[in-house]
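Hi W.,

Here's what went into the run:
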Amino acid sequence: MPIERPTISESSLQELGWRITVFLSIFTGTTSAVLILSWFLLLPTMMLLPLEGRAIPSRDIHQYVQELQGRIHVAAKRRDELMSPVRDPLYAQLRIEKYSYLTLPALYSEIQRVAGIVAEGRNDVVFLQSLQFHRGERTLLLEGEVRNVGPRSMTILAQLVDRLRTLSLVSSVDLPLFQREYDAQGGFTSPFTLMLHLTPV
Amino acid sequence: MKQFPTLHTRFFSSPILPFMGIVVFVAVTLLLIVLHIGVVQTLQMEVFPLTVGLPSLERRARVLEEQVELVEIRELTELQPLDENLHMFVLPRGPSLSRALASVELLRDTLGKQHNLFSMSPVRVGEVKTLPDGVAGYPLSWEMELTQEGWRESIVFLAISGLLTVGDLFHPQERSLLLEHAESENPAGIVALEMFLSSDLLRYAQDSRAFDEQLQRAFTSPVFESISHVVGDGSLFSEAKRLLDGEVGHALQGELLWPMQFTSLERMGITFREEGRVRLSVELLALSRT
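Here's what came out:
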């Protein structure tokens, strides 16, 4: 006797499809609802930053940082003003201009120090003959000579220029003429004239 | 009786409606996922890096504002006669020469007594110059032959002429350094620092112990044991303190020449001669208000 196989009718396929799509639509609908709730309720709460006793939305953090920086700038400026009891604006302006030569003693000490370094501790190598300070142009003209190092006098001079350029009180140094001459004793000497441009206050 | 399915029931019983729902819900879900990812990225790339530095910014703002408040309160309780000194002696009204010349004379006399001065030319006085911002200046110039010590003292003397307080000695960067140290170690100590910086320069130089002790009570770290330690030994602070605590300072006080008239050094020439001698040429302006 032949076995009768069951057949799937068209209407049962349709019903199966309907059930699957209903299930999927419920699933995706629930997912959307959860994400909508997250967007409107959960995220705003999580994105609140607790700062100085209050909470701000994280999107406002740039503005908050700018506000803080503004407060710091204003308070630092006010504090600086308060450190000077004399608030006369003319006096304050003139005092600032004095700083351009208030540092002359320190600068001279620094020049001597670097001269000692390039001379490797000897005090008979770099001779400073004169200094000419001009406040308006903010320059210091240095005249002197390098001697007692044989043919290395120009090398020592070049090292001196390099060292002077590293001083914080000096913004730049004009290159001198590098020359080597014979001195009275028959040794080599390199006279120099260096123009130092001083760092603006 | 057989019922025939209507269009209405055929629509709702077919999978079309739920399929449309799936499409809409999937689109909404994808959109919201993308938005959530955007928010997380913003948090990671922008917000979190900013929040790392926020506590120190907030603390700094709070500390600075408290410091300002403390100093403002102290100012209300103290009388400051410095403005009076400024208008009468440092920058007097109308072209004035006498105090500046008296100071130069005092410098010459003191250097002479110390045997730091070999010779000095007469002081040449030019015609008064009118400068911007309501300032006038008498040009003064002279030459001196000095010892090494003498010329250093002369430069410091000219540099501090017209300055009133300890704080005036400090370059803005040096002052910022002091304030930074105070802020990090003991913000409330700003009052002691302000009192130190606003103290009269000559008075401080001649009796610095009381001021220094007050400062050391407020700031116990080794950094503040010596202000020179903070700003460096070569600073004008150290040199001026040494000068004003010596004969020059006592002479200024005795001759009632403190505070000195404000002078502006225009040019200075220093020539190193044999046997340690230094030839100093000075051109300056003795300033006053017009």
